[in-house]
User: Fold these one by one.
Assistant:
Number 1:
Amino acid sequence: MSFRVLDVATVGRMRLTKLGHSCVRIEHDGTVLVLDPGVFTEAGAVDGADAVLITHEHPDHYHPDHLRATDAPVYTIAAVAAQIRESAPDLAERVTVVGAGEEFAPAGIPVIAVGELHAVIHPELPRFDNSGYLLTLGETTVFHPGDALTGPGRPVDVLLAPVCAPWMKVAEGIDFARSVGAPRNVAIHDRVYSDAGLGIADGHFGRFLGAAGLDYVRLPGGADL
């Protein structure tokens, strides 16, 4: 199968592949981690995965059929683990629960769980649990925030930056990316807007992050960087 590939060649031996919406596949020194394979994720995303990480329970980030397509261990928060036990018990024995601030090493890759709560969707709706993941891949760090604007509290090389969501204004996404200050920003959470809306969001992200000396890219279908 073919993937849309972003090779971050300037920051180490790492390949980062965008696989739809918020799912990314990261390869480093022969190890493959897949984050947030959900309903908008291409089939085959978990092929060859050594571990799968899930930030929270929403279906655009977690879909059990992707987990059934691999034997890899799954690392996630307690809320997702509870949902798996209830709706996909055949997967439960492969799940390891992680909590905020915890350091763990799926397939030998150092990871820190960051944050505890999903961004506010509406004040009258309950807050969901959410954990971002800060990965260290040799000398390169990558941060996936899930559905939150909670930063890692330390410098990172690559931010997987949400660009459109029911819980976020474009201005908030831009300010979050600027606060993290990663030299490279790769757009995720991008299946909510139309192509026209994404064009507007890309223009704003590119303008403001570029002015701050930060790179921004959202990969169109079939494009490599």
Number 2:
Amino acid sequence: MARGADRGARMPVAEFTLPELTQWGEALGARLEPPAVITLDGDLGAGKTTLAKAISTGYGVRETVTSPTFAVAHEYHAPRSSVYHLDLYRLAGPEQLANIGWEDVMASRAIVMIEWPDRAGAELPAATHSIKLAHVPGKPDLRSVSW
């Protein structure tokens, strides 16, 4: 996943239905090599958790992947490594990252997917793959994805 490795760089936007987004995410997950940190940014309902589930499935997670909104962090197991799915929505800022074991997660040789990455501020690693999801105005069945 070399494209988007620089958080400031974005590739052209693609538009997907949710089933297409799932298919794209599964293909992405199948190509990932640990360690990798992926940020999933977008408004509520843009498809962040849908994409995290698809990436996890493609990577080899066989457990049911659920939204970690209330738990903040979920760990799943795949044949190649663990997969962490973090939802930082409920955090006020980076000063609360220690409460969720941030340093241990970042030090792991795992796949780490982070929803609401802005809450981590400067604590995000430099080698983060960034994916931005958005609703497509006038097309409620589509999501735009840039990476």
